[in-house]
UniProtKB/TrEMBL annotation:
Protein name listed in UniProt: DUF4168 domain-containing protein
Organism: Hansschlegelia zhihuaiae
Signal peptide: 1-24
Taxonomic superkingdom: Bacteria
Keywords: Signal
Amino acid sequence: MRRAAAISAATLALALGAMSPARALNEDVMRNVLSSVFLAQNFTAVCVKVDPDFAQEAGGKNGDASKVIAHMKDEILATMTREEAAPIVASAAGAARAVGLGMIRALSGGSAEEQVIRVKALCEETAKPIVRSVVENHDERHEFFEQMLKDARQGRG
């Protein structure tokens, strides 16, 4: 009886350990998902300055782009501890910033009016489809998104 109790306790400890935040995390999946969300966030922040309707137009059935992106970030971050999230967030944000700044820097030069025209074109032709894709993919395939996060939390990906 004692042995059965000890085995049950050990089994329970293993099961609980497998469900704790300390289990393996596929950081690459989390970083990749989060970097696309940060890129969409960065585009939205820049593009609403030249087109106040950008967030609404790039949004989906669950709200404007800013609202959906904030929701996505919350969902992703909720799957990680602070210790896990810190380096992943820093890396993902850095990657998104580098891509966004690279695209915007390519538009520099000429008069301020010419630069605004080029940024508006970037927002309409490039940023809006990217942001809309991130938002719509989340809206339309939410169960897949949740499963992907769950799998990444368990070290799969």
